[in-house]
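Subject: design request, 150 residues
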């Protein structure tokens, strides 16, 4: 039953992401990777807006982690500052708060967290990202993803 609720919530979030992508300056993307503490594989998606100030973009994302006998759904409200391009690639850095929903042994709990991230992205959409989490967020996440429509 809880898996059904999580699936329904992810479907709603995905639908909102698709609706937001109708705006020509908003892009959507997918991501996957591994986390440490908990040791999990994760996958998810994100929305990225046009710059809201200088090179600062709003980049909320949802990541679903599986493994280590638990499921984690992380709702990350992040901002990313994109540094100038260097030959088709550029660095970015940012972070923000997170709502983490943990499911373990048919019990579900939620807690807040904070993420700090750095990454490198190609101007055609491929990116690599490293996150450090605090409070109830996973300690470390290493991921790869793709942003469509770049």
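Subject: RE: design request

Done. Sequence follows.
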């Amino acid at each position: 039953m809880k898996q059904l609720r999580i699936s329904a919530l992810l479907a709603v979030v995905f639908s909102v992401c698709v609706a937001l992508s109708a705006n020509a300056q908003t892009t959507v993307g997918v991501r996957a990777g591994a986390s440490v503490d908990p040791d999990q594989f994760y996958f998810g998606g994100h929305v990225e807006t046009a710059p809201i100030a200088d090179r600062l973009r709003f980049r909320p994302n949802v990541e679903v982690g599986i493994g280590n006998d638990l499921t984690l759904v992380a709702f990350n409200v992040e901002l990313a500052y994109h540094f100038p391009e260097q030959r088709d690639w550029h660095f970015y850095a940012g972070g923000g708060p997170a709502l983490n929903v943990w499911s373990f042994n048919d019990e579900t709990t939620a807690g807040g967290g904070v993420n700090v991230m750095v990454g490198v992205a190609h101007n055609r959409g491929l990116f690599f990202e490293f996150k450090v989490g605090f409070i109830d967020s996973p300690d470390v996440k290493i991921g790869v993803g793709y942003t469509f429509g770049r």
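The first strand starts at residue 27 and ends at 36.
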